[in-house]
Amino acid sequence: MIAFDDNEDPADDPETELDEEFPLGDGDAETVVTVYCPYCGEPNDVTLDPGSGEQQEYVEDCQVCCRPWWVEVSYDRAGNAHVDVRAEDA
Predict the structure, then answer these.
(1) Alpha-carbon distance 41 to 8, whole Å?
(2) What is the separation, in whole angstroms, between the first and last Cα of the chain?
(3) What's residue 20's pLDDT?
(4) What is the pTM of this model?
(5) How far apart are CA 83 and CA 72, in angstroms?
(6) Closest CA to 77 of 18, 16, 23
(7) How far does CA 57 lie from the centroid of its chain?
(8) Distance between CA atoms of 20 and 67, rounded to whole angstroms?
(9) What's the rounded Cα separation, in Å, for the pair 24 and 20?
(10) Residue 17 burial by Cβ neighbours in a 10 Å radius (0-12, 13-18, 19+)
(11) Which residue in 83, 78, 88 sits closest to 43, CA to CA?
(12) Is the pLDDT assigned to residue 4 strictly greater than 50?
């Protein structure tokens, strides 16, 4: 528990802001998933960062063929990751 001075507003606390942006479930969020490259079809383990928000989009290269994919990640309230990858040039 965090204690606040009488003059301090709890809404100004960075931890409060993070909780509002990414509501905490039971503290267990997926951090690694296996996806299949849209180019070569090979499996790739992708490390996820739940602390970056419940909706994320970024480019990552295939660990096998090195071609870039567009990665979309979303987390549900239970901390389960939903990951979609597609060819970057699609």
Answers:
(1) 54
(2) 48
(3) 60
(4) 0.65
(5) 6
(6) 23
(7) 9
(8) 36
(9) 9
(10) exposed
(11) 83
(12) no
